[in-house]
Amino acid sequence: MTGQRDIATLLVQDDLASGPVVPPIHQSSLFTFDDVAQMAATFAGENDRPVYSRGNNPTVRVFEQKMAMLEGGEAARGFASGMAAISASILAFAQSGDRIVCVRHVYPDTYRFMRRLLPRLGIETSFVDGRDLDAMRKALDGAALLYLESPTSVVFETHDIAEQARLAREAGAVSIIDNSWATPVFQRPLALGVDIVVHSASKYVSGHSDTVAGVAIGARERIDRINTLTYPFLGGKLAPFEAWLLLRGLRTLTLRLRRHDESVTRVAGWLQAREEVERVHLPEISNRPGGLSGRAGLFSIELRDGVDPVRFCDALDLFRLGVSWGGHESLCFPMAVGLRQAGEHNSLVDFGVPQQLVRLHVGLEEPDDLMADLDRAFATVNTNIQGSP
Ligand SMILES: *Cc1c(COP(=O)(O)O)cnc(C)c1O
Q1: Which of 46, 324, 336, 348 counts the most CB atoms within 10 A of its CB?
Q2: Which of 185-189, 321-325, 380-384 has the lowest mean pLDDT?
Q3: What pLDDT, on a 0 to 100 scale, did the predictor assign at position 385?
Q4: How many other C-beta atoms can be found within 10 angstroms of the C-beta atom of residue 14?
């Protein structure tokens, strides 16, 4: 059906829905049948009719089919959040007595899930440096699952995903990757040999900071396993209205990501040359087909000693203080605050990130305005340093 069409074309076509150019929101919990024979046929799996919205909902289905098409997978399952997609996918492929291998600097709640909840179910996780393929090969011996993120959260390390996927396959482990940062516009992990792609659709897939959602994509057999083993019982279903918002967001995904790429290249380049900045953590582009081909808006900077990251963030105006990312708006987050976050299993502490790190999301604003904002904040911080006794 999709042929050789470009992803930009696929994104604006909702050709899965007939008639209206925008599919309707099926805001209904259940779907009735004409007669018992039809009901029985549906229950026997002889047709694809929706029954109940914790199972299938037509609006959610359009979103799932579109995500499967974009990532190049056979099937997809929408979820209430990225974490619902991540936890249901991992639990479908790991059981008591199993061991998982995971790259360091994964999303902090993914880390906490592995450290706090999985051990209670008899599942242990070994964390490895994703750049060290030798260490990964050794850790994968006897492991059931390999969990990947590239670029990683917070420090934005890039990994050789194709090689990581190959190591997992050799070891007989299922591989899962979080592709929220790159999206299928900039990275196609299934083409690189990964088994399952998960997204926090709350980020770029939505793109408008107005919904929390998730999705898992892969071969039909693997998504069926999620559909029969974890999804219906954990119950983290995607709501029809959220699915509709996500379809709306997807239509501009290429446009938005191209703009993020252009803006981030300018803003990060400008930051690189600032004397207040020690280092810019920006992912490297890959030349492999399916590999990372562009840069999303999220990256981090390490400020020089003496430049206070908290004061710097407080002095910013267009970059608003907040968690999450992937929307239209620019954001900042001083990692020193994350480092002091209460409770056990803080991946920032356990794997170490510099106190001086500030995460920035370059939104869809005019980059000149963003640089002026950063410039003004640097000036404020510098004045404060010079002005203090
Ligand atoms: C936000 C995020 C998640 C979690 O997604 P939710 O939709 O908030 O549950 C997972 N992975 C990454 C990389 C994220 O940034």
Answers
A1: 348
A2: 380-384
A3: 56
A4: 20
Tens-place pLDDT, residues 191-226: 999 999 999 999 999 999 999 999 999 999 999 999
Give pLDDT, residue 4: 78
Cβ distance 217 to 195 under 8 Å?
no
Tokens of 389: 């006794």
Alpha carbon distance 216, 205 (integer Å): 13
Task: Please tell me the pTM assigned to this model.
Answer: 0.95
pLDDT digits (tens, 9 = 90+) for 220-272: 999 999 999 999 999 999 999 999 999 999 999 999 999 999 999 999 999 99
Phi, psi of 306 (to 5 degrees): 95, -20
CA of 335 to the centre of ligand 1 (A): 17
| 54 carries an active-site annotation | yes
Domain 253-380 has CATH 3.90.1740.10: no
b/e for 321-340, b at 16 or more Cβ within 10 A? eeeebbbebbbbbbbbebee
Q: What is the 223 CA–ligand 1 centroid distance (Å)?
A: 20
* Strand segments (E) across the chain: 75-79, 99-103, 124-128, 145-149, 174-178, 196-200, 214-218, 277-281, 298-303, 320-321, 331-334, 357-361
Determine contact, residues 230/9, Cβ cutoff 8 Å.
no
Task: Evaluate if residue 17 carries a pLDDT over 60.
Answer: no
Question: Is the pLDDT score of 57 beyond 80?
Answer: yes
Domain 7-250 CATH (choose: 3.40.50.2300, 3.40.50.1000, 3.40.190.10, 3.40.640.10): 3.40.640.10
In the annotation, is 369 catalytic?
no
Contact 165, 193 (CB under 8 A): yes
Q: Given 178, 195, 261, 373, which residue is catalytic?
A: 178
Domain range annotation of the chain = 7-250, 253-380
CB of residue 82 inside a 6 A radius of ligand 1 = yes
Q: Is the separation of the CB atoms in 383 and 307 below 8 Å?
A: no
Report the pLDDT value the prediction gives residue 387, as an integer from 0 to 100: 47
